[in-house]
Amino acid sequence: IGERIQLNLADNSLLTYDLYQPLDHKYEDDITLAIVPGICNTSESVYIRTFVHYAQCHGYRCAVLNHIGALPTIPVTTSRIFTYGHTNDFHDMLHHLCERHPETKVVSIGYSMGGNIVAKYLGEKDKEKVPNLIGGISICQGYDGIEGTKWLLNWQNFRRLYLYAMTEAMKTIILRHHHILLSEEAKNTYNLNEREIISAATLPELDDAYTRKIYGFNSVEELYDWSSCINYLQGITLPVIFINSKDDPLIPDPLLEPIRQFACNQNKVAYIEMAHGGHLGFYEGGLLHPNPVSWLDRSLVSIIGALVCAHMETKAPE
């Protein structure tokens, strides 16, 4: 059972993250995993809960960011929710986490949209990172929002259906918090057209009608370009592992070429590409009854151990 922590941010937004303590205390190192879920996901999502419990059993503390607006039981207090590329919420969680546990070392882990947020954050040069942060892992993300959207708009591998589902999930969040996000004050302040928001059939349409206006971007293209981690990778200074699968229905092969090229020329970056795994799948076992703990869960714990060992070696006295 985790502890739900609430933070009142500088812009009056209410941010929550769930903190889970290690279940196995035989490990000497104090390591915390700072986890950013995928779009519309939270600490209550099944794949997050499965990994958190597995990591706890291996001696890790876990802190899971709950995207603003995604938890139905937590109110939205300002006229914004989470986005694909805004990293401030993750930044604030990390600083609060390290104030509570100043001696811990932190490995950041992001799934899908969360993978973009983690990678972008690690590459941003305008934010003062906590010194506790020792590395990151980014899983099943597409790196480039502009190019990725082009692929999502076609029907190959049923991408358009996935896009529809994500759009409806975002609209559900907006409508759930309608009294704040679409209040008369918000509509007047940001020039929002409620009918355009409700009728949006794709994420680009929704972002054009809502997200870009809330955050002051002139166009969706400008928002996506600013949000995409591909434009921040050169700023990464910590060890980072990127993981993708070749059969991911949301992320076709052309979107993976930039990260392949980038990883080839970096000493602190590794890229793992699996033949199978889908989008955050990586299940093992029988077809009807796969193992609850996936290949990804087990591999992440191994990779985290390697990142910790590498960090200890660099800090060890000669």
Automatic annotation (TrEMBL):
Bilayer disposition of the protein: Single-pass type II membrane protein
A Pfam family hit: Abhydrolase_1
Record's GO cellular component terms: sperm flagellum; sperm plasma membrane
Subcellular location: Membrane
Signal peptide: none
Principal location class: membrane
Keywords of this entry: Hydrolase, Membrane, Serine esterase, Signal-anchor, Transmembrane, Transmembrane helix
Gene3D superfamilies assigned: alpha/beta hydrolase
InterPro entries found in the cross-reference section: AB_hydrolase_1, AB_hydrolase_4_CS, AB_hydrolase_4_sf, AB_hydrolase_fold, ABHD4
Record-annotated AB hydrolase-1 domain positions: 34-285
Protein's GO biological process: acylglycerol catabolic process; medium-chain fatty acid biosynthetic process; medium-chain fatty acid catabolic process; sperm capacitation; steroid hormone receptor signaling pathway
GO molecular function, one term: monoacylglycerol lipase activity
Active-site residue list: S112 (charge relay system), D248 (charge relay system), H279 (charge relay system)
Family to which this protein belongs: Belongs to the AB hydrolase superfamily. AB hydrolase 4 family.
Designated name of the protein: AB hydrolase-1 domain-containing protein
Organism: Cuerna arida
